Amino acid sequence: MKYVQEFDKIDLSNIATVGGKNASLGEMIQKLTPKGVSVPNGYVVNAQAYWDFVDDNSLRQPLTQKLKKLDTEQFSNLRAIGKACRKMILAGEIPIAIQTEIITQFELLKDEYQERIEVAVRSSATAEDLPQASFAGQQESYLNIQTDRELIAACHKCYASLFTDRAIKYRVDNGFEHMDVALSIGVQKMVRSDKACAGVCFTIDPETGFEDSIIISSSWGLGENVVKGSVTPDEFLVFKPTLKQGKSALISRKLGSKEKTMIYAVNKANTAGAIETTTVNLSTKTALQKQFTLNENEVIQLSKWAMEIEAYYGRPMDIEWAKDGYSNELFIVQARPETVHSQSKNKYIFHNYQLKEKGEILAEGKNVGSKIVAGKARLLSSPEEIELLEEGEVLVTSITNPDWDPVLKKAAAIITDRGGRTSHAAIVAREIGAVAVVGTGDATQRIKDGQVVTVSCAHGNIGTVYNGKLRWETSEIDMRKIKLPDTKAMFILADPGQAFKLSTLPNHGVGLMRLEFVINNTIQIHPMALIHFNELIDKKAKRKIEILTAGYDDKKEYFIEHLSQAVATIAAAFYPKEVIARMSDFKTNEYAHLIGGDEFEPHEENPMLGWRGASRYYHPGYRAGFELECKAMKRVRDEMGLTNLKLMLPFCRTPEEGKKVLNLMADNGLKRGKNNLEVYVMTEIPSNVILAEQFADIFDGFSIGSNDLTQLILGIDRDSEILSDLFDAQNKAVKKMIADVIKVAREKNVQIGFCGQAPSDFPEFAQFLVEHGINSVSFSPDALLEGIENINMAEEAIDSELVLH
Questions:
Q1: What is the torsional sign of CA 302, 308, 309, 314?
Q2: What pLDDT score was predicted for residue 347?
Q3: Of 410, 289, 419, residue with least CA distance to 365
Q4: What average pLDDT does this structure show over 554-574?
Q5: Would you state the pLDDT for residue 130?
Q6: Among 210-219, 228-237, 503-512, which stretch is predicted with the lowest mean pLDDT?
Q7: Is 119 in contact with 187 (CB distance < 8 Å)?
Q8: Do residues 232 and 418 touch, judged by C-beta distance below 8 A?
């Protein structure tokens, strides 16, 4: 045939005639189907058919003349030009020879599947999906096509979609000549995801460019809702290195609200042969909103296929997938190169934004980008209101789709009620370097048109919209110029949302991961309230727990899953560097503030010196809660395969207490030395220093907690404003204790680190630690680079001294 080719007869060498999308499908069917990747079969209507259609209807000159009139500065007449071009295309007729080949191949496809089938009819521009331009969503697709008449009408409308407003502007923005781009059409057997689920998959973190992750977004029904950002999807995070090892590499899953489910409507062609509505978007039933769309086995299957696709193409990929509701089989329906992080020219430049003040929070959602911007909010309900948005303003709308592209490119920030990190708004925001806060739920109700707002995407994975213009600072860091010292420079970290971004900075891992942030902000519930839920007296707390733990038959699993996923995210971000997680160290008053906590915590006059740290773990009043922590850590290390995770006990008053806790951990599958598990102890009590040799016999290392150690040596409440002038980690008594415990650690050949602000604030303190042989120093993220500089200076000074002597 002249105009039609089967997918298994084309590959990437045919991009010029079939477009990137179709060429990629052919390539996958030929090369990846033998590796087990399932791709629905079909065929291509090539670019020659498009050009013969154009010439047979004498459209070249009229289209060229019309497009010459386009205002390429303000695009003031874009709608009128696009409408006129589409009208010309739709007024033409597809030559009989082309129609005959399309229908003949359709019959052959039916014979192959030996059943009555529906097909998807997708547009693929001949310059589409090149590495430098994604062309995502610029042309139209038509689904659930069943008859010959519908098929020809859908192909005709695909040709017209080469001149959608967004496609015209995209070509201008990316330097493509309009009449140099043709349109190929892919006809592919439909996957009945209307009866199941569908979505997208990135083989690179779309926010940070972290390359060891696979991000899968999923929602009920057809995948258009995920692609266009019409819903907030489920999100699954898979870690490639442990997936290759055969471990349970699903390290995080987040339940999306999945507000809508797109299904097929009754599909008809009118008397003129034009396609009527082929889909309908229904409200998702509440029970399905609370249910994950994919199970772990399905997530792992998609992830393995994604790695095969990425390995074959040799670059990060943006993949669309679907699950058939009749056969329950998964399929890959499209794959193209990821075009933001993989093509970045500034991989070594780290942009740091710090908000210097806080204000009234108007909306929160998932962040896209890592910048902070401010401007006037402009509430738009339709892309036709483009003239209302001034360059650099903040666009606020319910959802976006590709029709919004010309509008989005004028915005400094994009805020949507619905959508996830792989939605249309998110993808465009990354491409144009804007920030976005998606899936806020109610931004269009809470933000007023014309209101000045500050949009911050600089911290974690939550984007925040504040009222008014706030102050912030920016800095640019060229990581190639930073030399890591011999002394390990590590992070103090609490928020998993920052892990992937921070891991790109020069570092030796995480010297202190605080679990309290996750327990307080994500879990929110006292572990003993989950264990003894049925006996709770507080009815209000009970209702809150029921809401938070919806979908968990075993409420203890809620705690284990959320804690393990948070720890795994940080361990994966820095893998294979060590990540030392400190077991929970709330004081009794802090534990009491957790939901249901009042019923399990005593009132103490001085919680700082009370029932905290190791003494809680083996006590009957908390032992079962600590066992949940142990189960979470065992899952991360043994099931997920993140053996770079090490554990640390806080506020351990005596060696005997340390032995009790170590025995309890062993009883819960965390035996020191098994699977290379190392357990450290915080050095924050004078007894830890005085009995350092005994502690070194039962632990693998020390970590000096300078705040608690200073307050207990000097007898000063570290929170006291009156005594704040006396609180000094550089006090001679404190430094003597630090020097003593470092000396013992070196003699006993165990690791010792330091956690605190002083080495970044005071170069002389950094030099003191280095001179005494500290193995590592851990810093908060904002102090890391200054701390590295101070350690480098200290090491250079010591080297110079050695040379002189």
A1: positive
A2: 66
A3: 419
A4: 97
A5: 47
A6: 228-237
A7: yes
A8: yes
- Report how far residue 224's alpha carbon sits from residue 6's, in angstroms, rounded to the nearest whole number: 25
Answer for the pair 311, 37: CB distance below 8 angstroms, yes or no: no
DSSP 164: -
Q: Which CATH superfamily is domain 4-190 in?
A: ATP-grasp fold, A domain (3.30.1490.20)
By DSSP bridging, strand 645-649 and strand 679-683 are parallel
Give me the pLDDT at residue 131, please.
38
pLDDT beyond 70 at 353:
yes
CA-to-CA distance for 664 and 515, rounded, in angstroms?
A: 19
Closest CA to 652 of 609, 613, 704: 613
Mean pLDDT, range 36-63, rounded to an integer? 96
Q: How far apart are CA 679 and CA 595, in angstroms?
A: 30
Q: How far apart are the first and last CA of the chain?
A: 86
Measured over the CA atoms of residue 119, residue 123, residue 129 and residue 135, the dihedral's sign is negative
β partners of residue 477: 350
d(CA 788, CA 488): 9
Residue whose token pair is 């097929």: 264
Angle between helices 165-174 and 78-91 in degrees, nearest 10: 110
Query: Where do the DSSP E strands lie in 739-800?
Result: 751-755, 776-779
Give me the residue spans of the domains in the chain: 4-190, 194-337, 354-477, 482-804
Question: In the predicted model, is pLDDT for residue 137 greater than 60?
Answer: no
pLDDT band at 345 (very low <50, low <70, confident <90, very high): low
Out of 47-56, 381-390, 672-681, which region has the weakest mean confidence (pLDDT)? Answer: 381-390
> Domain 482-804, what fold?
TIM Barrel (3.20.20)
In this structure, which CATH number among 3.30.470.20, 3.40.50.1820, 3.90.10.10, 3.10.620.30 belongs to the domain 194-337? 3.30.470.20
Cα 489 from Cα 484, distance rounded (Å)? 7
Give the closest residue to 586 by CA, choosing from 480, 514, 637, 495. 514
Pick from 422, 406, 332, 439: nearest CA to 138 = 406
- Asked if pLDDT for residue 557 goes beyond 60, the answer is yes
Selection from 180, 175, 172, 176 nearest residue 73 by Cα = 172
Positions annotated as catalytic residues are 424, 755
The confidence score (pLDDT) of residue 266 equals: 61
3-state SS, residue 764: helix
Whole-angstrom Cα distance, residue 524 to residue 538? 16
Q: Backbone phi, then psi, for 25, in 5-degree steps? A: -65, -45
Cα–Cα distance between 202 and 566 in angstroms, integer? 20
Q: Which residues contact 304 (CB under 8 A, 6 or more apart)?
A: 243
By three-state DSSP, how is residue 724 classified?
Answer: helix
Dihedral sign computed on CA atoms, order 668, 674, 678, 681? positive
> How much is the pLDDT for 1?
87
State mean pLDDT over 120-130.
Answer: 74
Level-2 CATH architecture, domain 354-477:
3-Layer(bba) Sandwich (3.50)
Residue 679 C-alpha from the chain's centroid: 30
**What CA–CA distances, in Å, run from 792 to 368, 490, 766?**
35, 14, 9
- The per-residue DSSP string of 231-283 comes to S--EEEEEEHHHHHTTS--EEEEE-----EEEEE----B-TT--B---EEEEE
